[in-house]
Amino acid sequence: MLNANTETFLACDAPYEQANVVLFGAPYDSTTSFRPGTRFGPHAIRSESFGLESYSPYQDRDLTDYAILDSGDLELRFGGPESALAEIEACADGILQDGKVPFLLGGEHLVTLGAVRACAKRHPDLHIIHFDAHTDLREDYLGEPLSHACVIRRCWDLLGDERIYQFGIRSGDREEWRWGKDHVRTQRFNTEGLAQIVEKLRDKPVYFTLDLDVLDPSVFPGTGTPEPGGISFEALRIAATLVCSKLHIVGCDVNELSPHYDPSGASTAVACKIVREMLLALQD
What we know:
Layout: E1 21-26, H1 41-48, E2 55-56, E3 61-62, E4 68-73, H2 81-97, E5 101-106, H3 111-122, E6 127-131, H4 151-159, E7 164-169, H5 174-183, E8 185-188, H6 194-200, E9 205-211, H7 233-246, E10 248-255, H8 266-281
Parallel strand pairs: 1-4, 1-5, 5-10, 6-7, 6-9, 7-8, 9-10
Antiparallel strand pairs: 2-3
Helix pairs in contact: 1-8, 2-3, 3-4, 6-7, 7-8
């Protein structure tokens, strides 16, 4: 007998009522400033995840032992970003309302803003941990304030000073760096000091946003804005696991995979493995 064709991230097929983490995709890249293609990221992560084992030898845990749901991709309108952000916010809000953690698969980095809006409404003392190559602190990009180059600035509009912690940053225009000194905490080039920030935020609700271009392009070339000088896969795995296992994560995302820029498939495999490790670490 033939069954309905359903595709989920590896082993993430629990009933919604039982799931404590719910993945959903936001295949949107209409404000990408350099090379487009992140709209194909969620599907690639979902499809290629079956090249991995559900078991993590790093954590001695298996996805099959936990109730996690991959609810699929949202159908987002291309063009103006506000309607897409509203749909992402509504989806994340519904997941939060049911006492679950929304885990967003991008898509360009702007999609983070929709999920952060939902989390900030329910958690007024929300903090953000942000891994990225880029500051994303522009007031606007070519006159557009809703851009992946502005997403953390828009998050700051919601949260204010001393609530955003950036790691791995190695690119941004001069005004972003100058503005950021007074408004966000930025660790340049690497994840040094993360353990101290994790300890500081232990009793706070935290949103974790991971732009995969924090990785060096030699590890992760499949992205629209590659930036040499990034961190290694192992450094990212350790850092992301620390954040997800030790903090009160109320929402998170992984974004900026453009799979077609790496026809070897290695970048997509990296993304899949990081998602697996984050999902397992969130089970603490």
